[in-house]
Amino acid sequence: MSGVWVFKNNGVIRLVENPAAESSGRNGGGSRRKVLLHLPSGQVVTSYSSLEQILKEQGWERYYGGDPDLFQFHKHSSIDLISLPRDFSKFNSVYMYDIVIKNPNMFHVRDI
What we know:
This protein is of the alpha+beta class and 112 residues long. The chain has one domain. Helices cover 25% and strands 29% of the residues. Strands 4-3-8 form a 3-stranded antiparallel β-sheet, with helices on one face. It has a 3-stranded antiparallel β-sheet with strand order 5-6-7. The longest helix is centred in the middle third of the chain and has 10 residues. The two termini are 24 Å apart. The relative contact order is 0.17.
């Protein structure tokens, strides 16, 4: 566990693991945008069509039986289901990390 312990005036302390990122957020810098990187090709996923192509190569198939507001994939060899918002502009780090966890050594989430 590394980072900086921050002591507040009210006596509460907390661990800040990346103090540089936290301080830029306080100064109006905002949070950094994240991207999903496909490790074997080194390409950033920029659309659902490119993501679908990569997932199909990994054995994932489109799943049409769920919520119509979601873009979903499943694998016959597992119980995993990847659910993504239909609108790619709402594709955020939560969904990216879900893909990373379900596809070890294939994807990585990076700050840009």
